[in-house]
Amino acid sequence: MEIRSLDIPAEVRDFYLSSGIGNLYPPQAEAISKGLLEGRNVLAAIPTASGKTLLAELAMLKSIARGGKALYIVPLRALASEKFDRFREFSGIALKEGGVKVGISTGDFESRDEWLGSNDIIVATSEKTDSLLRNGTSWMEDITTIVVDEVHLLDSANRGPTLEVTLTKLMKLNPGCQIIALSATVGNAYEVANWLGAGLVLSEWRPTDLMEGVFYGGSINYRTSQKQVHDASGDDAINLVLDTLEDGGQCLVFESSRKNSVGFARRAGMKVAGLLDKRTRAALDDIVEQVIEAGESDTAKVLAQCIRNGTAFHHAGLNSAHRRLVEDGFRSNLIKMVASTPTLAAGLNLPARRVIVRSYKRYDPNFGMHPIPVLEYKQMAGRAGRPHLDPYGEAVLIAKSYNEMEMLFENYIEANAEDIWSKLGTENALRTHILSTIVNGFATSRDGVMEFIEATFFAHQNDTWGIVSVVDECLDFLREKKMLQGETRLTATSLGKLVSMLYIDPMSAAIIIEGLDKATHVTELTLMHLICKTPDMRQLYLRAGDYELINDLVLSRKEEFCEVPAPFRATDYEWFLGEVKTALLLLDWINERSMDDISKVFNVGDGDIHAFAELAEWLMHSLSRLAAITGHDKAGMAGSIEKRIHYGARQELMELVGIRGIGRVRARKLYDSGLHSIEEVRKADPAVLGGLLGPRTAEKLLREIGARPGIRPGGGTDGNPDPRTMDSLMESEQSTFSDFER
DNA sequence: ACTACTCCCATGTAGACAGCATGTC
DNA sequence: CTACATGGGAGTAGT
């Protein structure tokens, strides 16, 4: 089917023609025939890279041409910005004055454009969409097209219920709205399509061929053929990597743990290095430099070493700069192999000639090592083959025996992806969504709640009589915690409204309020531990040797905790110690312990530290608001800790850290040289600032606070610098030198 | 006496969304 | 209730 023949505005047609897209892929054509351009709902369950985005784009643009507005829901922030960047290319399409406008809304980023609702396309995560709905965003009712990306995430225990409830609310709010759902191929796609009232496009078609095989006995075995792999290293997986490189391709290796991904990248690097040409090596050295600049932790050093050899690892412990460097380095074909945890399995567009699944098992605390779902394998395998660049893609599993090979063929390569199941039916999921449903007036009674649930995917798959009792338990809980009131007619209290708005689990709110009630001797530790107790916080686990250390601390500061469980309840007590350990990490963060130290002591990556801080900031904000509304006097204290978590610094730096471009490290340098306030910095000798922070940063700093950047090239100073300033100047010089040595 | 290698056992285990108001090294 | 890859330390054979 040709773009020319489609019933779309000429501007849209020309946009695609001029970007070189003239024909539709078969699944896209099928979606058109199911009424995509006539406003019908469509569920496209097709592989990655088979053109899902184009489907969505056509429908959105057509709708916008008629004066509509589109909402594009994604599961990941990274995906949101990827789509946002893509849709911004529409600004040249003259469907209306000024072109098509795009906005983005995620928890950490909201587009500057006057107001989100003035955009034609809004990209948002599912949780942000839910949050926007909870806060009664007015333009939600103007939405005419909704795109749901990765709709199979309905199956996720954590996040599926949110997506499900959000979609249900949107459908109730906008009955006439067109829904385009995009999904991986799953067993029961028809069931989801049915729920959405959508036409189903089900296809395995890919623009690039995919060969799936199992490596065993020195060769890759496909069902009908075999490919010998030269044993150049003594390690099966490394041989597969080298084989791909010699063939001119790149490799993506999926590992089951961070440690394994780092280890494999390192080992493979020793062999890969020999295959690099001079130009590539030079370009890689450039990336290495940036890696070292972006963090001096041990992981940074190891990553730098790997990249020098043309390999890299990728997991959530990396900081965002490192992640981006790895992704970009791989995309530009400089990094030849990336060993990754499932971070890269779904979401980001990062294809490779060959995908190696080094382990199809993953640890689960309940089940030991457990085989991953077929759906997940298919997502990893689907990364193989770059459209238009590779002749084909290959996905390879590794077997240690003939039987295992047979098993892998049967259970993965030839298997169909699992069915997806709603996870809404648990008290955990219902508690929070029932509250928001009532807060927003989607339901005003117990019957109303049940009626709402009848419209969800859960009810589409199950009889709902089974969860009536669960609903009642939730309602009792919410009433008992004073978030709801009334018997037949249910209304939210101001507390309930606040909890829904803050987007925290009502259970978290209950724990925080109870803790505030009980606490007698309130310190930073008290509040920090309190937020670490909530189910919304992520926990650190106790490692061997932690017990004693943390137990000692608990005993010596017992009165600062709102409650210490009895040590003889071993599991409870260990869980409690885990919470305390998490609180200690956060305390180290706000007391300016170096990232490197925190990394080592708590055995976490830079990326984790930021993730913990981000969560804690949100929960501390919530604590502050909850304290205020329940009449506790700790709201102010929580508020200032919240700010300290944001910057990772002590109270005394709060003024300096407010300057753009100055964070915890630079502010500390300034403070320790006697510059305690913006005013003092403004009056300081520019040359001294230059010595402290480097001339360029100093100049930026002075511009930022509205002072004249008057640093002289020679670095001469007026008068005698205070000796303390001199010391720290020397120190900073030294650290600069040692940075260079490495 | 020192080194290279093997074996055994302790150890630790993926990812990532949300508030609010603007910008880390 | 369920596993397994990794790496460090101890022990051993070789020079």
Automatic annotation (TrEMBL):
Biological process (GO), any one: DNA repair
GO molecular function, one term: ATP binding
Pfam family, one: Helicase_C
Sequence similarity: Belongs to the helicase family. Hel308 subfamily.
Gene3D superfamilies in alphabetical order: 1.10.3380.30, 5' to 3' exonuclease, C-terminal subdomain, P-loop containing nucleotide triphosphate hydrolases
Gene: hel308
Binding-site list for ATP: 28
Organism: Methanolobus chelungpuianus
Sequence segments annotated as region (Disordered): 707-742
Official protein name in the record: ATP-dependent DNA helicase Hel308
Domain of life: Archaea
Record-linked SMART domains: DEXDc, HELICc
Domain Helicase C-terminal: 237-431
Annotated keywords: ATP-binding, DNA damage, DNA repair, DNA-binding, Helicase, Hydrolase, Isomerase, Nucleotide-binding
Subunit comment: Monomer.
EC number annotated for this UniProt entry: 5.6.2.4
Biased amino acid composition, Polar residues: 731-742
Domain Helicase ATP-binding: 33-204
Catalytic activity, as annotated: ATP + H2O = ADP + phosphate + H(+); Couples ATP hydrolysis with the unwinding of duplex DNA by translocating in the 3'-5' direction
Function as written in the Swiss-Prot or TrEMBL entry: DNA-dependent ATPase and 3'-5' DNA helicase that may be involved in repair of stalled replication forks.
